[in-house]
Design brief:
The complex is a heterodimer of chains A (240) and B (222).
Chain A lengths: L1 E10 L2 E11 L4 E6 L5 H8 L7 E6 L2 E2 L7 H5 L2 E4 L11 H11 L5 H14 L15 H14 L4 E5 L7 H16 L3 E5 L3 H7 L2 E6 L2 E6 L1 H6 L4 H10 L1
Parallel strand pairs in A: 3-8, 3-9, 6-7, 7-8
Antiparallel strand pairs in A: 1-2, 1-4, 4-5, 9-10
Chain B lengths: L6 H38 L2 H16 L2 H14 L6 H26 L3 H9 L4 H31 L13 H12 L2 H29 L9
Helix pairs in contact in B: 1-2, 1-4, 1-7, 1-8, 2-4, 3-4, 4-6, 5-6, 6-8, 7-8
Classes of the chains: A alpha/beta (240), B mainly alpha (222).
Bound molecules: adenosine-5'-diphosphate (ADP) and magnesium ion.
Chain lengths: 240, 222
């Protein structure tokens, strides 16, 4: 379970997160929506300690993420993260993209790590691309590679930051299909997305971000079909 | 005394070219080593270290190399440790090129997108694992052409060591020695130019082959 408690964060004078409270239960998919600059990406980075926080607390399985005594490298094994772009390691083949961290972080043998990497790449439909470099893959394939790489670490949670936003429209579907599959398997996910139909279909809850706050949160039916707050309505009418 | 250009002179010049090569390789290696750590320190540490090392780089890049040779040599002599000009030449060249290498290394480190580094750290890699397995290989490919350029420049700069009369003489000074006897400056300097050209060509050729093999120019991050 992920518990985000009154998290505040500023970059210099810019207040980016202004008291975020959010609990994500195991097996739950929470989608984050909101205008660009509202702090969604920053929140994800704070959840796996790629960014520090100024105030508040993040607990992952009751471990305090930003505590000085927490081994953050250890903690990050539980939290897979995928970004909008530049996820892949351009100097490594798809197989090595996945197996590198298995060797370095999970200390697997070469054979173990390659077998596991292959298994996960096959699962996301990249069987034919094991020995291809990222530059030889389409954007959608690169994103699926990044998902496979995260999943191979057997994380308990996935943090996904607009992973379809940089893709050509015809490639979005294949990536969303992969996410549907994961949701069906019960993976716990925090998904930043602008794909409202996807959020409506897959999310257990949707949170609308506005100026560093969760302005409104609820089931997809409530938040997307019947938003209560005026800003939520405005935002949704703009992107739908 | 023989006033014409002989086979021995050609051998003498070849030996000079070899010395030039040795000077380039040794100061290139030492300078790249120093520059690597300076560039790395500037990428990761505090603002204070960033600016202090920035001053080091600025000084090195603004004082003419020939002045650095003379100053360093005189300084060591005054300090009571007169140094062999050949050795002090290598040291000066190393320090000199390290300033330029440091800038290229920093550019290489910064050429790796923050997101890519967040991806590797997000998988649980440590700072050092990310640096060694992600940043160095990606950054290296990005800066390889600039680094090769620096090494070519370094090779030509080794000729400035001639002012200190270092022995064994490198290519330019061995040419001057022959000129003093043969009085055919243009011909002999042209010959020296050919030697420099061939050596540059060799380095460029090897670098290009390497780039081709590793898809360096065509490499895209995504
Ligand atoms: N590393 C950073 N340094 C300074 N400002 C940043 C940094 N990262 C993000 N910001 C700023 O924080 C605000 C929130 O950014 P972000 O979390 O990326 O929003 P979102 O993902 O919702 O678009 C933006 O105004 C952005 O410019
Ligand atoms: Mg964002």
């Amino acid at each position: 379970m992920i518990k985000i408690k009154d998290v505040h964060k500023s970059y210099g004078d810019l207040k980016v997160l202004d008291g975020i409270d959010l609990e994500v239960n195991n097996g739950e998919v929470v989608c984050l929506v909101g205008a660009s600059g509202s702090g969604k990406s920053t929140l994800l980075l704070c959840v796996n300690a790629l960014e520090g926080i100024d105030k508040g607390e993040v607990l992952v399985d009751e471990i305090s993420v930003h505590d000085k005594n927490t081994n953050q490298n250890e903690l990050r094994k539980k939290l897979g993260i995928v970004f909008q772009q530049f996820n892949t390691f351009p100097h490594l083949t798809a197989l090595n993209n996945v197996s590198l961290a298995l060797k370095l972080v999970l200390k697997m043998s070469k054979k173990e790590s390659n077998d596991l990497a292959e298994e996960h790449l096959i699962k996301v439909g990249l069987k034919e691309k094991l020995n291809h470099y990222p530059s030889e893959l389409s954007g959608g394939q690169q994103q699926r590679l990044a998902i496979a790489r995260a999943l191979a670490m057997s994380p308990s949670y996935l943090l996904l930051d607009e992973i379809t936003s940089a893709l050509d429209p015809e490639l979005v579907g294949e990536v969303l299909d992969t996410l549907r599959m994961l949701a069906d398997e019960g993976m716990t996910m925090i998904v930043v997305t602008h794909e409202i139909p996807f959020a409506r279909e897959v999310a257990n809850r949707v949170a609308f971000f506005h100026e560093g706050k969760i302005h409104e949160i609820g089931s997809p039916k409530d938040l997307i079909s019947n938003p209560k707050k005026i800003r939520t309505k405005e935002f949704l009418s703009k992107i739908l | 005394m023989n006033y014409s250009f002989t086979l021995n002179d050609l051998l003498f010049m070849s030996q000079g070219a070899l010395i030039t090569f040795v000077l380039t390789i040794s100061s290139g290696i030492i300078g790249t080593f120093i520059g690597f750590f300076i560039g790395w320190a500037r990428s990761s540490s505090s603002k204070i270290i960033f600016y202090l090392l920035g001053i080091y780089i600025d000084i090195i890049r603004s004082v003419p190399l020939i002045l650095q040779f003379v100053l360093f040599n005189s300084f060591m002599a005054i300090a009571g440790y007169p140094m062999d000009p050949f050795l002090s030449g290598i040291l000066t060249l190393s320090v000199y090129i390290s300033g330029y290498v440091a800038e290229v290394i920093l550019a290489g480190i910064n050429s790796v997108p923050k997101v890519t580094r967040n991806s590797s750290r997000g998988l649980g890699m440590t700072y050092l694992q990310d640096f060694i397995f992600i940043v160095i290989p990606i950054g290296f490919k990005n800066i390889f052409p600039s680094w090769t350029g620096l090494m070519l420049g370094l090779m030509k700069d080794t000729s400035l060591i001639a002012v200190m009369g270092a022995t064994p003489p490198e290519l330019l000074r061995s040419s001057q020695i022959i000129i003093n006897r043969v009085h055919e400056p243009i011909l002999i300097l042209l010959g020296a130019g050919v030697f420099y050209y061939v050596m540059c060509y060799l380095i460029t050729y090897l670098a290009e082959k390497y780039e081709e093999k590793n898809h360096i120019k065509s490499m895209e991050i995504r």
